[in-house]
Amino acid sequence: MKQIQFIIPLLNEAKNIPLIYDAIRREITKNNIDIRITYIDDGSIDESWDQICQLSASDIRVKGIRFSRNFGKEYAIEAGLRQSKADAAIVLDADLQHPIALIPEMIEAWLNEGFKVVSGIKSQRQKESVFRSVVSSSYYYIFNRMSGLQLQQMTDFKLLDKEVIESYLALPEGSRFFRGLIAWLGYKEKLIEFSPLDRLHGETAWSFRQLVNYAKGTLISFSYVPLKLISFMSFAMFLFALLLGLQSIYNKLLGNAEEGFTTVLITQLIIGCAIMYGLSNIGTYIAKIYDELKSRPHYIISEETRE
Fold this sequence. Notes:
Blueprint: E1 3-10, H1 17-28, E2 34-41, H2 48-58, E3 62-67, H3 73-82, E4 88-91, H4 103-112, E5 117-122, H5 130-147, E6 154-161, H6 162-170, H7 178-185, E7 189-194, H8 208-222, H9 225-254, H10 261-294, E8 301-304
Parallel strand pairs: 1-2, 1-4, 2-3, 5-7
Antiparallel strand pairs: 3-8, 4-6, 5-6
Helix pairs in contact: 5-8, 9-10
């Protein structure tokens, strides 16, 4: 009998914890699969940990891991995968927007079709503002162009074979982007479309500012294009300066030279903005290098329930 570990990272999802447990148990009892469920509490301030402890006490298949503070979803996923000893793991959100009914199809693709990775992709985006939808679509377009990895509509809802998990955990970098790194590994993958379900309880923990910072970090981690843009801008500024110089010499020879304070001011502003943009990109990459060199642990576990 194959064993599958469910990895469920969460933050302030007390009301959803028993619901997703019941949904998994109902769906998987239809299949001859031995399951384990691991909740990773990423610094919740509600009753999430109490709910996890109650489930763990009533079902030996349930385990809880509690971080000392909020370290982020990427590291919560990593913590869950590191303690997994199963033949495969399924990563899904605790908000019930990833349809549990899709799991048997994912397991079938893994067991009988030979796929090492089975990923759920959104056939449509969940309800959100037009602005947020445009920003999200723009980010994925830029990421795909800059990194060469196709992550459009991709989610963290994935089934991973044990071999994939071992390869993922062997990656040395501290800055993690789960979706991007799984795609980068290049294992045989099947994509299954789904429509995100409505959240039953609670609200998303991601603010717009956090999403922007997250997007910037993932782009820096997977591409050198921002650095290359500095060279491109330098060349563009050189051409601009050359044309402006030729124009000034031409006007001087014709006796039409004027006091060009406006032109000089605009030129200085453009050059100054280009320099600041370049320094900003360089600073971001240096900060990433600094974080990697510190080699701090990705997370701190303060409590665990029994197996």
